[in-house]
Design brief:
The protein is α+β, with helices and mostly antiparallel strands and 236 residues long. It has one domain: DD-peptidase/beta-lactamase superfamily (Beta-lactamase, 3-Layer(aba) Sandwich). Helix content is 28%, strand content 15%. It is built from seven helices and eight strands. The longest helix has 14 residues. The protein is globular, with a radius of gyration of 18 Å. The two termini are 30 Å apart.
Length: 236
């Protein structure tokens, strides 16, 4: 499926290849998972996230729905051209990207994921197991057929919600997320149990993430070129 339905000429979702045969990120895919949870299982996504993740991990400043107390320390956004973008206040949870959070809460989340808190050993292994090789030259646009030999060279693959690869230190993984005015990234080294988490209210901050990650973690093979494409953010 396309990343979002508005990218289709007729606005209708369709399969562009057989499921399970290749990787392509899709925000619509997260919406479908949310639909399955809410309509199929009759559960409230935000309530489940709070009970299963936020509360156990001490994430008191995180929600998929805007809370009035977040106004105490909200951060407005800045686009690539420096233009100002006021912080939005999402009234309905969106699994694909409505979360408000803090760097402290995200650090708690990813530390818990590395430890496997709340997961069985089998589920933790499956989370970061390479599920499907990635051969695409970059993540976006999601349906490009262009390939890049650098991906197979580091065993670039899709895990369950993360992207995995082989580093000099062994298996590693990352997850990025951004829009036109925010940029977020986590990079984790599985064997060393080390992660670095970046959050920024300016998408331009993504340009310094590779250098910061290298300073904190040391030299890595993190495929910035795939996450961000062939611009100066991709320098490693």
């Amino acid at each position: 499926m396309a990343n979002f339905r508005q990218l289709e000429d007729d606005g209708r979702l369709r399969f562009h290849f057989d499921p399970g045969t290749r990787y392509a990120y899709s925000g619509e895919g997260f919406y479908i998972l949310q639909l399955a949870i809410e309509e199929g299982l009759g559960l409230d996504l935000e309530a489940e996230a709070s009970a299963r993740i936020y509360a156990p991990f001490g994430m008191t400043r995180t929600s998929l729905r805007w809370r009035a107390d977040f106004a105490e320390n909200l951060a407005d956004g800045y686009a690539a051209d420096g233009s100002f973008e006021p912080h939005d206040e999402r009234s309905r949870p969106s699994a694909a990207g409505s979360m408000d959070t803090t760097i402290e809460d995200q650090a708690r989340l990813w530390a818990a994921i590395v430890r496997g808190d709340g997961l069985s050993k089998a589920s933790r292994r499956e989370l970061v197991r390479p599920q499907r090789p990635i051969q695409s030259a970059r993540q976006f646009p999601t349906l490009w057929d262009w390939t890049d030999p650098r991906g197979p060279a580091i065993a670039l693959s899709a895990g369950l919600g993360v992207v995995t690869y082989l580093d000099d230190n062994g298996p590693s993984w990352f997850k990025g997320g951004h829009n036109d005015w925010t940029g977020n990234m986590v990079v984790c080294q599985e064997a060393r149990r080390r992660c670095v988490v970046f959050l920024s209210n300016s998408v331009r901050a993504e340009r310094i993430y590779p250098a910061l990650a290298r300073f904190i973690l040391g030299a890595t093979k993190t495929p910035w070129w795939w996450e961000y494409g062939d611009d100066d953010r991709a320098e490693s």
